[in-house]
Specification:
- This protein is of the alpha/beta class.
- The protein has 10 helices and 16 strands.
- Strands 3, 5, 6, 7, 8, 15 and 16 form a 7-stranded mixed β-sheet that branches.
- Helix 3 packs across helix 4 and helix 3 crosses helix 9.
- The chain is globular, with a radius of gyration of 20 Å.
């Protein structure tokens, strides 16, 4: 029987319920796909806890890849049997789902369906951060948090491909080794490390050009302290707590900082942007810039996968396998 994992109430992982489903016919401009793999991301946790509310009950999961099973009458150049990937729309924690045809990206023969399943959301996020939020280029100095995690690894490898200098942060020596293996030039180790002082030392008191905060809580204020004058900070997550209010005086005029709060879901909702960015993601997968190492869980263990991601027990991408 086909299955889905449904969120029945916001809160902890015990509100995720496994149940059976029947495949639905696609609408005129939709496809029905059968998942090969479904990515698990922090946005799923934010939706589960109610930070990013969804109408309930809801099926979480905003990326995946699989095989086209049925094609709507107005769904364009798709055929049953096509391999596709997608990102940016909930409904992924299921054996099968309907999908707007414009979200489906045909996969070339040399791109693995399973690798694509857990790569597109973090690939789109990296593309957004390194091209629109801040145009990273050779010599740009970046501060990347959780550099051994799925997004951190992708950002590190992509930034190094562009010729950037990367300072990563990690929670343990084991994760530091992973971050170095991904190409980080410097790694700050330990949750209680004096990040501001370490960045000042590594940049000869200048600060980095671009810093990304995926932690939230008091980490955002520390991240602001790591950036040079006229530098940019991107706040993209809050696994460590709510985003605090930032007085304008914290940004300038003396420090002259720019603070961005970009959303990959908004980025992926722009159809032309989505088309260009997903092709860039395919290119970096082909080049080996997006690493495939991570952990797989059966679909029924979606709650455990979220728990392991939330508590920092994983590195790399996380996949649910139907």
């Amino acid at each position: 029987m086909d299955r889905k994992v449904e969120l029945i109430a916001t809160g902890d992982i015990y509100n995720l319920r496994v149940s059976g489903i029947e495949p639905e016919p696609p609408g005129p401009d939709e496809l029905r796909i059968r998942h090969v793999g479904i990515g698990v991301n922090f946005i799923d946790i934010y939706q589960r806890t109610g930070l990013y509310p969804l109408p309930l009950p809801a099926v979480l999961g905003v990326e995946g890849a699989g095989i086209v099973e049925a094609v709507g009458s107005e769904a364009g150049e798709f055929h049953v049997g096509d391999r596709i990937a997608y990102a940016g729309i909930p409904g992924g924690y299921a054996s099968t789902r309907r999908l707007p045809a414009w979200r489906a990206i045909k996969l070339p023969d040399d791109i693995s369906t399973r690798i694509a399943a857990g790569s597109f959301l973090r690939g789109l996020t990296a593309h957004m951060l390194l091209t629109r939020t801040y145009r990273a280029e050779r010599g740009t100095t970046l501060l990347i948090p959780a550099a051994a995690g799925g997004l951190g690894a992708t950002l590190t490898r992509w930034a190094k491909h562009l010729g950037c200098i990367v300072i990563g942060t990690v929670g343990s020596p084991e994760k530091a080794r992973i971050a170095h293996a991904n190409g980080a030039d410097h790694v700050i180790v330990g949750r209680n490390a004096d990040m501001v002082a370490e960045v000042a030392r590594l940049t000869h008191a200048k600060g980095v050009d671009f810093a990304i905060d995926g932690i939230g809580g008091d980490m955002l204020g520390k991240t602001l302290g790591c950036v040079r004058r006229f530098g940019v900070v991107a706040s993209i997550g809050q696994v460590g707590g709510p985003i605090p209010a930032i007085p304008v005086q914290e940004l300038g005029p003396i420090r002259s900082l720019s603070l961005a709060r970009p959303s990959v879901m908004a980025y992926a909702a722009e159809q032309e942007t989505y088309r260009v960015a997903t092709q860039a993601v395919i290119a970096v997968i082909r080049q080996g810039i997006i690493a495939s190492a991570g952990r797989d869980y059966p679909l029924e263990e979606a709650a455990q996968a979220q728990s392991d991601l939330e508590t920092g027990k994983t590195t790399g991408s996380i996949l649910l396998l139907p």
